[in-house]
Amino acid sequence: MLSKGSKPLIERKNKKEILIGIKRRLNEEIGVIIELISKYNLDNFHTKGSIGYWNEFRLLFPIIETISKICNIDRQKLIKEELNIEVPTIFWNAYRNSLMHNDWPYISKLKDRIIPWGVTLDGGDHYISKEDMIIDPGVLYRSIDKFLEKIINETDNNEIIKIDIGIEYFPDGLKDKRGKIIKPSQEIIKEFNFLEEKND
To answer: Rounded to an integer, what is the distance from CA 14 to the centroid of its chain?
Structure first.
């Protein structure tokens, strides 16, 4: 959500180049981290114990959101049809909304039915039933990578899209839908002034 008195800073970019960059970072950063954690856990499970898997999700969720926006695909449809998670809304609420704002995933409850969350990194597949939802971030990573490969190949080399590259603040404010002038918070103004003085 944008701060008061601001709007997205938009630029026109080549869609294929943006998607290639996303895939490169996915492979060179997140993929390497998942591989290192998997290897460490395999080598040390019986001696030093294993490293947890929650943070891999925290790395993957922004990629899913970005792909959905850039490719103009409904996020739930993307998760269900391309990333092979049959209950995309429960998944998003239990894993993304909890892990991006808290330090643990959430259980899901409807009346007397409770679906606990689970995480594995065994390289098999997700396990989703009426009693459990166990998601493998390594499998999710590979599904995202596969979808990116497909969409990159399908994208025209010259297609241009508008993307958010930042936030622009307006010290005199912006009009809201009712015509009221909304100005940025004083904290934003003070911090910009602080940075200007700091660099002098």
So the answer is: 21
Q: Please tell me the predicted confidence (pLDDT) of residue 17.
A: 97
Under a CB-based contact definition with an 8 Å cutoff, are residues 71 and 163 in contact? no
Which residue, 12, 9, 21, is CA-closest to 165?
Answer: 9
Q: How many Å apart are CA 162 and CA 12, to the nearest integer?
A: 4
> Whole-model pTM?
0.86
> Two tokens at 46?
């019986």
Closest CA to 149 of 29, 20, 45: 20
In a 3-state reduction of DSSP, which class is residue 185? coil
pLDDT in tens, 27-55: 999 999 988 988 888 888 778 877 777 88
Distance CA 77, CA 84 (A): 10
Q: What is the DSSP letter of 78?
A: I
Tell which residue, 29, 2, 140, 16, has the closest CA to residue 71.
Answer: 16
Distance of CA 66 to the CA centre of its chain: 7
Q: Which residues pair with 135 in a beta bridge?
A: 119
Phi, psi of 45 (to 5 degrees): -55, -40
Strands 117-119 and 113-115, sheet pairing: unpaired
Q: Are strands 133-135 and 127-128 parallel, antiparallel or unpaired?
A: antiparallel
H or E element in which residue 108 lies: strand 108-110
Nearest alpha carbon to residue 169 among 147, 191, 194? 191
